[in-house]
Hints:
The chain has 13 helices and 11 strands. By secondary structure, it is an alpha/beta fold.
Amino acid sequence: MADSSRQAAIVGIGQTEFSKNSGRSEQQLAVEAILAACQDAGVDPHDIDGMTTFSLDNSDEIDVMRSLGCRDINYTTRLPQGGAASVTTLVHAKNAVESGMCDTFVIWRAMNERSQYRFGQPAMSISPDAHSSTFLEWCFPFGAQTPAAWEALSCGPYLDKFGVTSEDLGRIAVLMRKHAATNPASWFYEKPITLDDHQNSRWIVEPWLRLLDCCQESDGGVALVITRMDRAKDLKQKPARILGAEYSMMFNHEIISDFYQGDLIHYDTAERVTEKLRVSCDVAPKDTNVAMIYDNFTPQILRQLEGFGYCGIGEAKDYVNDGHMELDGKSPLSPNGGLMGEGYIHGMNNITEGVRQIRGTAANQVKDVETVFLASGVAGAIIGQ
């Protein structure tokens, strides 16, 4: 970017505790997280003039504005595709503030996923006005009624082709819980697991996904504040510059049920996002210091590692097994414990951890962090000092 003073930056992060029963409404969780992010940044919530969240979020923009005292919103939108929306929100925020449309942009996601409803259970309804894609109509009538079932169908051909075993997947789960065990904010703080624990956990979808291959169902809220660098210099925190943020929605891509595609080996959207990042900021995901990769299920780590260019096709299990994703490895993976270990707020808590790594304030701080890669399959962002 020619004018670095107009570059977007994350200047505030906020989150509630992650629990299994928050005891309060999702709107309250959303507002608590936003207020915490504003306080962290040192901005007045009255000055928020742009916002985005997920299409699945149950908190209404007008109600959130009323609770915060926002005067006038110049830009608001909601993003589809479930957890894939997490990093996609940064694409919208970056464009909104760098264009001058907004000065103080807020992203939030709040959910009582455990106490109010269960994403892991077949509770969705099929109706003509159902959320965006028609994927439910192609899944539910044929018995594929949970995210774990959809994941197993889409990842099964890859796992079979490259001989990925349940033990290979288990090593990812063990690593995430290892990081969570030393992060006081995580639900599984001081609760690491062994590979035997993973292998003894019950099958969710045999023969691919065990219980400990799945992310959590959590209650909680997370929020971010984004502005331009020319304003960030006067705020409280060290800014995390958004060096690049890219998104790809390719032909016939579904939210999670991509098992109807012809090629289930390559992660086409991730490959396309990587190409875009190379052009927009001249940084490849594999060249960053920390990898915050969306971990709804363990196979997603493998497929995204390859799609985002960390290793070649079929090499991801060895990349993990060789220790490259340990805290002292080549590509430390989610030092907060990720969605499996810390909490599942649809990927948003992985972004706040990325910001802490840039600031140097994380519980499991990686040494000499200059750049962090944030990934949610169809979207990727690189943040830096």
